[in-house]
Design a protein that fits this description.
heterodimer; A: alpha/beta; Fumarate Reductase Iron-sulfur Protein, Chain B, domain 2; Rossmann fold; 4-stranded parallel β-sheet; 16 helices; 8% strand; B: alpha/beta; 5-stranded parallel β-sheet; 24% strand
């Protein structure tokens, strides 16, 4: 039997990287029981925390990259342990100190963002191409609102529709808005969770500078991830802006009578709560309210909803990593929707949109279920 | 007279000395006006420490003493007594708190020393203006009020009444007995709860020194230790207590059924009811909310069948006023409602029940006659018992409820006893079996073949993923000892729900002028050394209103509270606060603001011998709070020991750099 002495250096590394919440853990295992990974494969969150506490964590273990930071465990943890901070600290230790190898897809994505400001490695000057045909103005200090679409719709032709729908609605409602196009970069939310603190901070500083130079005060975002970083993380770097998510903004436009969803949409729709909109930021009702305003639309709840929503699997950089068939949360979620006879799965996040569209395609279900961002459904209805 | 002050600085072991430079304080104090001597000592509160002070008073002729040490709440009385023993009026003493207010909360020694010096200087300047004060005595009522008739209240009432002192026992429900009457067998000895409790209840009911007031609530409390005045509302029972023989015919004939609170909603009672057959007193009440006569104006079946004409629909609430010397609060606890934890499915799945519901089901006096049954009447063949539901969880209650591990174990035994082939699972985080015979009980349960799974349950669901799970409740959790995820299919789930503070604890605390902890329970005066007293003299607490606890601890605490109440009675007098308000009649205009303000009714404006009206303070009622002194428009009122000169001297010394 080997003598157990906590490996102090390894503990200190994690503590320095912001992982000290592990000290509070009393090892009840509620996190493991709550974690969606355990619906598809084994992922012992509790054990990792214990190993971290003793300095016995294996930095080479690829499981360190599994956590999607969905926050389900944190929400329920009886000790209030910020488990995401622990996961982030473990990854920071790897990225910052080279304790182990970063998985290739993630490494490449981070390199892309570092070089081009977007995870797809596309040319920055093409960032506003999605809006070319739509006559969208570049933001000037005089506009009321900046629309920040997220990198994914900017460059992914499959997802572009949600940004286009959003500007269509804004125009119809007579909102004075603009976009920054080439001047903006990835928000960096996932980069930070994937352990690259340095790159996150430089992205944050770059965006904050761009917002400031252009006189931005109010930002409308399509992605809950942009929402989270702008609202909760950028203030730590001096960036204080009014941030609003499209679902909140649409609910307001409907309330004020600026848009009226009048066209009937006779379909069964379920709404998937994105982790960063729901659990992380407490926005549950506005998306439902917006959907319910569409005439003829039958809104049903998936078996796991609101705080119990199951992640699409795309958080924390997982969007860019390959997840084996049989282990994809999005597949589980689609099955839940299909079991209910749902015809349209409504989402409110470009990551969710990507993950579910991939799942529908790989499951050969694109003919029975559509994946739509809420903005797209509203545009159809007005 | 020349003022000669002795200054004493305590090290408190290392508590003060590690953070404050004690020698420096001594040197500084020696240079101040009026200071005749300054010394330091390791523990001034010890006998040799007090001796130093006493010796100096006598030998150096000190007429003022300042001690810089801990909080006055800790040792003011100690040092005042020392002064008195040396012949110095105890009010010529002042204390500087350089521990709680300084050394314990600072780490920079230089700054802490500076602050301690300022606090000490303030005390020395203040004590200069102190005047000798005399305390007065007030007589004590030999009666005691006990609020809450659960096991704690019953125990305390019997202890006091057996010493032939009168007890008023007030209970909100129609019967005494509390939660303990609802329990089946009790851990770890497995004696039947009712069997050990009902004899005590009967004793209370017939005791010549106990005036039992059930279906009653305290409405107002005034006065102070030794002479409290209490108003009690006796709610209308609509049954004449003097006539009723408790025959039970009215309950039999009443056609209106209501969920039984006693049976935790599992069974029914009538609109006229006693909560259970062994109720004390055995006199029913009419539940106005559900009685057809009160709701619709017809029925009166109970009245028709009562031969002795005990039913009285015209009865009204009565207010009774009693005078008591001390008060014991034994108001108990509420049970945590687990529907707040949606993932456990309470309220959603029929066979997810709380511990209290299980107690009623398992009890021979319960709605199933002690049969453990599923909602559809079948016998469960597998049961999961989930620990820490609402306890040890920062989302609900952070504290441990102390009884759940043990009652969870007891449930296993009761199930195994009645359904020997049942599989029983205990999902726990830590087994806390700390009491007498508890560890042995845990061992016994292990021998009985209970399955222990160490892990906090994540979810209870009916979504089956295999044939084996179909029609079952599936309990999901990590078995942390195996480091693997479990899905345990069972027929029944019992939630070991937390004990929590009563929903109206805040109102009760205000009424009796006591405090609550952040967790909602009543705050004791000292967590270790004074666990049944409260900051209000003469008000004591016992049982689960103070914190969750088991029956043995509750009974011990109730006896302790009774002893404290008896001590008040035995002493026969209370020492009144010397620092009371006083009126300078030359300045008083008799405006009466003080009379309006004072919540203790101490000031009274009157014309003395036909002269102009002036205010007079009743020193027995005055608490020395100072509200009148602050508001007095002419500055006629001041509070002894808190005079303008004293306070200003203290403040000026503090702000001097």
């Amino acid at each position: 039997m080997a003598a157990l002495t906590p490996f102090k250096d390894a503990i200190d590394v994690v503590v320095d990287a912001g992982g000290d919440p592990f000290k509070l853990c009393y090892q009840c295992g509620l996190c493991s029981g709550t974690c969606p990974w355990n619906l598809v494969r084994s992922f012992m969150v509790r054990r990792m925390i214990h190993q971290t506490r003793l300095g016995l964590i294996d930095f080479e273990d690829e499981d360190l990259w599994l956590c999607v930071t969905c926050g389900a465990c944190v929400k329920r943890c009886p000790r209030g342990v910020e488990i995401i901070d622990i996961m982030r600290a473990l990854r920071r230790s790897i990225v910052g100190l080279g304790m182990a190898k970063v998985p290739d897809p993630l490494r490449i994505t981070v390199k892309n963002i570092s070089g081009t400001g977007n995870p797809l490695g596309e040319a920055p000057e093409k960032r506003a191409d999605w809006a070319k045909s739509l006559d969208v103005k570049t933001f000037t200090g005089n506009n009321d609102l900046l629309y920040f679409s997220c990198c994914v719709p900017c460059y992914d032709a499959n997802i572009r529709g949600l940004a286009q729908a959003t500007v269509g609605i804004l125009k119809k409602a007579g909102v004075d808005f603009g976009i920054l196009g080439v001047k903006e970069s990835c928000c960096g939310e996932a980069v930070r969770k994937a352990g690259n603190e340095g790159l996150f901070q430089s992205l944050a500083e770059r965006n904050i500078a761009a917002f400031r130079e252009n006189g931005v005060k109010n930002i409308l975002v399509s992605s809950p991830h942009c929402y989270h970083s702008f609202k909760n993380e950028y203030p730590g770097f001096g960036g204080n802006f009014n941030v609003v998510h499209t679902t909140q903004y649409l609910a307001k436009l409907i309330d004020e009578g600026k848009i009226k969803p009048a066209k009937e949409f006779k379909k069964k729709v379920a709404y998937h709560d994105p982790c960063y909109l729901g659990r992380h930021n407490g926005i549950y009702e506005e998306p439902r309210k917006v959907l319910a305003s569409i005439p003829g639309l039958e809104l049903v709840e998936l078996p796991d909803h609101h705080e119990d929503s199951i992640c699409c699997g795309g958080g924390s950089g997982r969007l860019w990593m390959e997840t084996k068939k049989g282990e994809r949360f999005a597949d589980l979620r689609l099955e839940q929707a299909l079991d209910l006879g749902v015809e349209v799965l409504a989402v409110a996040c470009p990551y969710c949109c990507t993950m579910f569209k991939d799942s529908a395609a790989s499951m050969n279900k694109t003919d029975v279920i559509e994946i739509k961002d809420i903005s797209e459904l509203i545009q159809q209805a007005i | 007279m020349e003022i000669k002050t002795g200054v004493y600085i305590c090290h408190c072991g290392i508590n003060i000395a590690n953070t404050v430079d004690v020698e420096h304080l001594v040197e500084a104090a020696k240079g101040w006006d009026t200071v005749a001597v300054a010394r330091e000592y390791k523990f001034l509160c010890s006998d040799p420490g007090q001796e130093i002070i006493k010796k100096d008073i006598k030998e150096l002729g000190l007429n003022r003493v300042v001690v810089a040490s801990c909080s006055p709440r800790m040792h003011e009385r100690t040092f005042r007594n020392a002064c008195q023993q040396a012949g110095l009026n105890p009010y010529l003493f002042e204390m500087a708190n350089i521990r709680e207010h300084c050394s314990w909360v600072h780490s920079d020694k230089e700054l802490a020393t500076k602050k301690a010096e300022a606090l000490l200087r303030a005390a020395v300047r203040r004590v200069f203006y102190h005047e000798p004060l005399e305390t007065k005595e007030s007589p004590v009522s030999p009666n005691t009020l006990i609020v809450g008739g659960g096991i704690a209240g019953i125990q305390a009432a019997l202890e006091i009444a057996d010493s032939e002192h009168k007890v008023y026992l007030v209970e909100r429900d129609p019967s005494i007995g509390g939660h303990m009457t609802q329990l089946d067998k009790t851990f770890p000895t497995l004696d039947c709860s009712q069997c050990i409790l009902t004899p005590k209840m009967a004793l209370v009911g017939s005791h010549p020194y106990i005036e039992l007031m059930t279906y009653s609530e305290v409405e107002e409390v005034s006065g102070f230790v030794g002479s409290f005045k209490v108003k009690i509302r006796k709610k209308a029972r609509y049954v004449d207590e003097d006539k009723c023989t408790g025959c039970g015919l009215c309950q039999e004939k009443c056609p209106w059924k209501v969920d039984s609170e006693y049976n935790a909603g599992l069974g029914k009672r009538k609109a006229i009811y006693t909560p259970f057959p062994q109720a004390v007193p055995n006199i029913p009440v009419i539940d106005k909310e559900h009685c057809a006569y009160f709701l619709k104006g017809t029925c009166r079946a109970c009245e028709k069948f009562c031969d002795i004409k005990a039913i009285n629909f015209e009865q009204v609430d009565q207010i009774v006023e009693v005078g008591v010397g001390s008060i014991i609060l034994t108001t108990g606890y509420d049970v945590f409602n687990p529907s707040a934890i949606a993932q456990y499915g309470y309220g959603k799945y029929d066979n997810v029940i709380t511990g209290l519901e299980f107690e009623r089901m398992s009890s021979a006096t319960g709605p199933t006659g002690g049969e453990i049954r599923l909602k559809d009447g079948r016998q469960p063949k597998s049961v999961a018992i989930i620990h820490c539901v609402g306890s040890r969880d920062k989302n609900y209650h952070e504290y441990c409820s102390r009884v759940c591990c043990m009652y969870g174990l007891k449930f296993s035994h009761l199930i195994k006893e009645k359904i020997p082939d049942a599989d029983v699972y205990q999902m726990y985080i830590d087994m806390r079996c700390f009491g007498e015979g508890y560890e042995e009980f845990y061992k016994r349960l292990c021998e009985e073949g209970v399955n222990f799974i160490r892990g906090k349950v994540a979810r209870v669901t009916d979504r089956a993923i295999s044939d084996e799970e179909k029609g079952k409740l599936i309990v999901q959790c990590e078995d942390t000892l195996l480091a693997s995820l479990m899905r345990v299919p069972v027929d029944m789930v019992i939630l070991c729900v937390a004990l929590e503070a009563r929903a109206d604890a805040e109102r009760v605390a205000r009424m009796f002028n006591i405090s609550r902890r952040a967790d909602g329970f009543f705050l004791e005066r000292h967590v270790k050394l004074d666990p049944v007293a409260t900051p209000t003299d003469g008000v004591f607490i016992a049982g689960c209103c103070q914190a969750p606890k088991d029956i043995p601890d509750t009974v011990a605490q109730a006896s302790a509270a009774a002893a404290r109440a008896l001590a008040v009675i035995s002493k026969g007098k209370v020492i009144l606060e010397a620092s009371v308000a006083t009126v300078n009649e030359a300045l008083c205009q008799g405006c009466g603001r003080c009379e309006e303000l004072c919540e203790f009714h101490a000031p009274k404006v009157s014309r003395k011998n036909g002269q102009l009206p002036v205010s007079t303070i009743n020193e027995a009622l005055c608490k020395g709070c100072g509200a009148c002194a602050v508001f007095c428009p002419t500055g006629a009122i001041s509070v002894k020991h808190f005079t303008r000169d004293q306070i200003l001297a203290e403040v000026e010394a503090l702000i001097e750099v």
